[in-house]
Design a protein that fits this description.
This protein is 31% helix and 23% strand. The chain is of the alpha/beta class.
């Protein structure tokens, strides 16, 4: 098997929520997330708002430091065996808000060229590369290079953000809801651009989205997060056709359908997730799960192998006699 290009192992991030000493409370944003990313692979990450997807993304690119856990790039531990400067040349992030992530006082050429210049590339070479990247993402440099963020549409700004992320020739892009703010026609164009770039440059993606139809279209594997933990992870086809966690099944059942015979008459999932300051014992999903039974409220479920490359953390799988 090909060694993973990126590995996250036991990532934990808790944010202080008040209190002192023994009464100190924390928000358990990410609680023990572990996954691998293969070269050229797209890993989709899904889950409700507040499940920890964006925090996990920031931990992966080291915009946040994990409380515990490690991130490795090509087998080298970031911070120990690999400097942040070197790591950030290889792993870049594209944010959801295309406007807020650009400097309003910088032209598009300057925004793309800024990073390479900070890392020692001459202004002339950096601007030449910025022009080439603008052209590659479908924006004519002579027309758009001198414009400012407010002079571009949301889709155009997101193309600039993708070009800026590519300025270092990275091998991994972490895309945090990068197409969710775009209308469907522009979203399709940006998705096609991302797929073309992956083929051309051999890129690997961590693709975070609320839209399960988009994830099914672009991802090779899917990771489902719930309340800071991984509920299920597996190949896209396997996870969509045979989900093995009740939460995954509920998310898939909530997907909009154009088939009039496939109407949702009963909500597949009710209520809000529990408070991440005080998550429930056992399986964190048991308070909303219609299939919960005895052990669910007492014991944290083990992550079991339920298929080829397919893992799920649910007591129901252990009840069926399956082992890791």
């Amino acid at each position: 098997m090909t060694p993973p290009i990126l590995t996250a192992a036991g990532l934990v991030k808790h944010f202080r929520a008040g209190g002192m000493g023994a009464k100190r409370k924390v928000v358990r944003a990410v609680d023990g997330v572990t996954f691998d990313l293969a070269p050229g692979e797209t890993l989709g990450v899904v889950g409700e708002s507040g499940c920890g997807k964006s925090t996990m993304a920031r931990l992966v690119v080291q915009l946040l430091s994990p409380d515990t856990g490690t991130v490795k790039f090509q087998g080298r531990s970031v911070g120990a065996d690999m400097s942040l400067t070197e790591f950030r040349r290889q792993v870049q992030m594209v944010f959801q808000d295309s406007y807020a992530s650009l400097n309003p006082r910088m032209t598009m050429i300057d925004a793309i060229a800024f990073g390479p210049m900070v890392h020692g590339v001459s202004k002339r070479d950096a601007e030449r590369k910025a022009g080439d990247l603008l052209e590659r993402v479908g924006l004519e440099p002579n027309r758009f290079g001198a414009r400012y963020p407010h002079e571009l549409s949301g889709g155009q700004r997101q193309r600039v953000n993708i070009a800026r992320a590519l300025a270092f020739d990275p091998q991994v892009l972490v895309l945090d809801e990068a197409v969710s703010a775009l209308d469907k026609s522009v979203e399709a164009q940006v998705l096609n651009l991302l797929m073309d770039l992956r083929r051309e440059r051999g890129l690997s993606y961590v693709f975070i989205s609320h839209d399960l139809n988009v994830v099914r279209h672009i991802a090779d594997r899917v990771m489902v997060m719930y309340l800071g933990e991984i509920a299920e992870i597996g190949p896209t086809r396997s996870l969509y056709t045979a989900p093995r966690h009740p939460y995954t099944k509920a998310l898939l059942a909530a997907m909009p359908s154009l088939d009039p015979d496939n109407r949702t008459e009963v909500a597949p999932l009710a209520g809000d997730p529990p408070n991440p300051i005080d998550p429930p014992p056992g399986c964190r999903f048991h308070t909303r799960c219609a299939l919960a039974f005895g052990p669910c409220s007492l014991t944290k479920p083990a992550t079991l192998v339920v298929g080829a490359g397919h893992l799920a953390a649910c007591h129901l799988n252990a009840r069926k006699g399956e082992a890791a």
